Amino acid sequence: MAINYADKIPNNVDLAENKQLQRALEHWQPKYLDWWREMGPESSVNHDVYLRTAVSVDAKGWAEFGYVKMPDYRWGIFLTPPEKDRLVPFGSHKGEHAWNEVPGEYRSTLRRIIVTQGDTEPASVEQQRLLGQICPSLYDLRNLYQVNVEEGRHLWAMVYLLHAYFGRDGREEGEALLERRSGDADKPRILGAFNEKTPDWLSFFMFTFLTDRDGKYQLAALAESGFDPLARSTRFMLTEEAHHLFVGETGIGRILQRTAEVMNEQKTDDPEKLRRCGVIDIPTIQKYLNFHFSVTLDLYGSEVSSNASNFFQMGLKGRFEEEKLKDDHRLSDAEYPILEPVGERLVEKHHPALLALNERLRDDYIKDCQGGVDRWNKTLEKMGVKTKLTLPHKAFHRKIGVFAESHISPDGKVLSEADWTRHSSDWVPTKADHEHVQSVMKREVEPGKYASYIAPPARGINNQPHGFEYVKFH
Length: 474
Ligand SMILES: [Fe+2]
Ligand SMILES: [Fe+2]
What we know:
By secondary structure, the protein is mostly helical. Helices cover 47% and strands 8% of the residues. It has a single domain (15-472), classed as Ribonucleotide Reductase, subunit A (Orthogonal Bundle), CATH 1.10.620. Helix 1 runs antiparallel to helix 3 and helix 5 packs across helix 10 (357-382). Bound molecules: fe (ii) ion (2 copies).
């Protein structure tokens, strides 16, 4: 399963054995590079960036670190090794041999699932395109580029599946993935959160903490798929994804640490005074968390979903850690509770578990987010700061699903529209909040230096020393 870097397209799928597929992907490759030049990180050409590149799919030691000249990053196709005699782990085909070809009757459904996942990958690169110009340090700039090149590779992972298993339709989808643009009114990306702006590094860290984590849960559900090439593709993507979540969690942690330091120095929690010191006050960080969390929750779709039920019954998309769950993996009689607004209250109702799979995945995701928030609060507590961050209620500020028509406060109270309007500026970032955050986004590219609003990381990438030159400009 070694990765062959001598090939034009590095891969561990024996691409050279399938000339037609190889040709099709080599035809797509320059179009991908055109897209990267147009929509990838602005002004990154020719920088030497200290990046990790996948060199094998072995869980211990799969990556190599070294300087890469930016557009020369070797994007490739890497699948985890096939598991011998793998069986479909859930749904109506549970116990049958996993498929190495697309089952004819599921073809269009599976294609849609792969395209929807694939679309998020270039979308996030587009959203993050300008952030390099206001990077808080070389360390952070390098992390941004690492995330960007890997999202590009995730697009490769999905385009490989489309080309290899969906013929001409798949090739057309591969082209369309390079044509949509995040936030474009005429040809937007498929999912809402991927059309939002990521204009500053607080948003970027919230995005990588929250929205990349949605990616983790979607990929984990696809990693259970009965369609084995999809399972093997997404398993390797998950290995890379862990770093993106790390960037988000430690990024917010470092912003909080810096704010807490200044709160202690100045003996104040007055947002205005803190803002004048060039840091981001905790209430503003809380509002960004509220916004990004609610927008990301919408990515899981409607609470009650016959699509999700079909995906599961077909054996295409499982639950989080499906194989570790102790039940029949068919969910024929199981139920799952769903919260919904009834008049002035939120009421839990039981639904067939098969129809509630989106909600279940969302709940798994929320638990994972809470873990990160608890770690941030520990940082604050250690520094003697009493304020805590909280995840808003899952019904807060939702645009999709049962809460879409309601107005719900961060602590889960049903509000009138007038009450919502009166308070919303306390809960989601205002124009003034955005302006303050933007005002502290000063570019810092001297090795070992950090912008005013963020503390240095506890450790360097690949244990590099403080002051390491992660990016060399030319
Ligand atoms: Fe990704
Ligand atoms: Fe990611």
